[in-house]
Amino acid sequence: MTTPNIAFIGAGNMAFSIIGGLVKQGVDPKKIWATNIDQSSLDKLEQEFQVNTTQDNHQAIAQADVVVLSVKPQIMKDVITDLSESLKAKNPLIISIAAGIKAETLQEWVGQPMAIVRCMPNTPALLQCGASGLYKTPEVSDAQAEAAEQLMNAVGITLWVKDEDGIDAVTAVSGSGPAYYFLFMEAMQQAGEALGLDSQTAKQLTLQTALGAAKMALESSDEPSELRRKVTSPGGTTEQAINTFQQGNLESLVKEAMKAASDRSKELSKILAQ
Ligand SMILES: NC(=O)C1=CN([C@@H]2O[C@H](COP(=O)(O)OP(=O)(O)OC[C@H]3O[C@@H](n4cnc5c(N)ncnc54)[C@H](OP(=O)(O)O)[C@@H]3O)[C@@H](O)[C@H]2O)C=CC1
Ligand SMILES: O=C(O)[C@@H]1CCC=N1
Fold first, then answer.
1. Residue-wise pLDDT tens for the chain (274 aa)?
2. How large is the ipTM?
3. Predicted model pTM
4. Domain residue spans in the chain?
5. Which residues sit opposite 68 in a β-bridge?
């Protein structure tokens, strides 16, 4: 792809994953600027990925065609208010990866309508295995939308949502999703140990099983429910485990958990808009 100059404002965990994914994908690191208030985070980024770094957000924006806002939602207002003049002067495409901040709110903080793409990525972007949901404001041109899509496609799959509310759902599914699978892996490893396996054996078997199951679900023409059926011999061992999960209402617990994530995204939108 023709890479625009990209500035990541607040290069922490998520930006690190996207930057790492982009560089591993062959994007010229000199096209990337990363900022942070913490110099040691910037040193790490520079060492690992040879990107440009600065503690000065204004300096990074002055170079940028695309500005990725990647600070925590709770400090976004202060950061944008401080950057308002630089953003208006440069008028870049803004990609906000913050959970729960509406595009309209971001525009209010900048002080004028801007081309904004809201993106909800996830940390597997580091391995080019990310999954991102995108939403664009009417100010975003076709070329800018394509640039945002290409950028995130370099680190995984991207899907557009038509309504901004869709981003709350994406946050609950794929933004927060890696943590659900990690929790399940932790639980399986602990259960394997409780059944007598040593820690390393329980871990390796758990992780390889997660990888194998994900690859099968992605590559097979069968639905996950059918793949599950094929593992579950009538009267066998899997059936006992699945029955136990269902008696514990796993499905409704998952629904409840993901609704809580989506509700929190909506709640943040209201709290942070003030
Ligand atoms: N982590 C994830 O899996 C995902 C996160 N997101 C979103 O990504 C955003 C970032 O999350 P995450 O990476 O986890 O958070 P982090 O706290 O790891 O990253 C934010 C970074 O910004 C730095 N920072 C704080 N103030 C400023 C400032 N004024 N200028 C420049 N940098 C600053 C922070 O430094 P310090 O720590 O010293 O304050 C921190 O290193 C959030 O809005 C979140 O909603 C979206 C999808 C997934
Ligand atoms: O937990 C959070 O708020 C962020 C957004 C999605 C993943 N991490």
1. 578 999 999 999 999 999 999 999 999 999 999 999 999 999 999 999 999 999 999 999 999 999 999 999 999 999 999 999 999 999 999 999 999 999 999 999 999 999 999 999 999 999 999 999 999 999 999 999 999 999 999 999 999 999 999 999 999 999 999 999 999 999 999 999 999 999 999 999 999 999 999 999 999 999 999 999 999 999 999 999 999 999 999 999 999 999 999 999 999 999 999 8
2. 0.98
3. 0.95
4. 6-164, 177-265
5. 8, 95
What's the CATH architecture for 6-164? Answer: 3-Layer(aba) Sandwich (3.40)
The answer to whether residues 127 and 181 touch, using CB atoms and an 8 Å cutoff, is no
Ligand 2 centroid–CA 11 distance in Å is 15
Q: Give the list of residues 6+ apart from residue 69 with CB closer than 8 angstroms, or none.
A: 9, 10, 76, 79, 80, 94, 95, 96, 97, 98, 106
Question: Can you tell me which atom of ligand 2 is nearest the CA of 268?
Answer: 3
Q: Ligand 1, residue 123: give the atom nearest the CA.
A: 3
Choose the residue to mutate in 72, 122, 176, 268 for probing ligand 2, maximizing ligand atoms within 8 Å of C-beta. 176
CATH superfamily of 177-265: ProC C-terminal domain-like (1.10.3730.10)
- In short, whether 96's Cβ falls inside 6 Å of ligand 2 is no
**Closest ligand 2 atom to Cα of 265:** 3
Residue 139 DSSP code: T
